[in-house]
Amino acid sequence: MKNKQPPDPIREKKSLKISRRHFSQAGGAFTLAFLLGDRNINLTPAQAKTQKIPLQLLNPHQAALIDLLGDSIAPGAKAAGLSHYIDHQLSSTAPDNLLILKYLRVNPPFEGFYSSALMAFDKAINQRFAKNPAELTSDQMAEFITIMMTENPEGWSSAPPAPFFYFVLRSDAIDVTYGTMAAFDSLDIPYMAHIEPDHEWADRS
Description:
Blueprint: E1 16-26, E2 29-36, E3 39-43, H1 45-50, H2 60-73, H3 82-90, H4 100-103, H5 111-129, H6 138-148, H7 162-178, H8 181-186
Antiparallel strand pairs: 1-2, 2-3
Helix pairs in contact: 2-3, 2-7
């Protein structure tokens, strides 16, 4: 009798699964469609974060780094559910993916891009400040982000260039935090799309 292969935690079907194709409008904000049992539930990334929906691909440390750096770049991104949004999109198929990497013609899968960049971020922070990223003061984080906007910080290696990662994560964070007409309204800025979308979240594909 052959030994059974251990289950793959990424590919294994779970009781809570993501329906990876559909976005719908609910409560004036874009939602991600989740499949729970035999029914769909719609949650915004912020609601998924608040309700502690399990991450599919990111580990907790990676999610925390995404939220920390993303919120430092675009304040409000953590509360908007940035890490849950990225995790959801990393779990989606290429035609349905809304991450900016798709539109920059980076070849999927995209997990390696984020995991290597986050590892480089963690290592470079430790080398520069002898601290973990979560221990940085706001001034230290601003100093580090200013560097990574233009060059690789010391200790940044085996990863996409820091300025490119900054651009990508900034785009992800802005999409989640300010990417709807409701968000523009909250900033008291009129939404001036050339073609106004018929729902809150405009699919770029």
